[in-house]
Amino acid sequence: MLRETQAIRAMSLDALYPERGSLSIETTHTQARYVLPSIIVPFYKRYPKVKLHLQQGTSKQIADMLTAGQVDIAISTRARERLQHCILPPCYEWYRRVIAPEQYSLARSKTPTLAKLVADPLVT
Predict the structure, then answer these.
(1) What does the pLDDT look like over 69-116, one tens digit per residue?
(2) What is the CATH number of domain 2-82?
(3) How far is the C-alpha of 2 from the C-alpha of 84, rounded, in Å?
(4) CB 59 within 8 A of CB 28
């Protein structure tokens, strides 16, 4: 009960003073390393007094922490089924490509299947 009271107090202060406060984000290693740096730098410039807490976890950990109210925002590519009670706006789309040397059968396939992918050596 005390924790909930402190959380309410913190939220009201965040609402009164949006230029300060804290923001906690739970995300995957990939998002933290490749996507968020280009977003965090402008965020810090605009809100230098906001304490940003970035945590990494698996899709399950991310969903569990958001559901438990331990983080403000979750960014994940595989937590959709675990977070059906949340609003899930898309941030961007991943485009996956198969790149293969000309001599591989994959290079001649416009729509490779998993069966075709396992036929040739694979490096990711």
Answers:
(1) 899 888 887 666 667 677 767 776 767 777 878 887 777 878 888 887
(2) 3.40.190.10
(3) 28
(4) yes
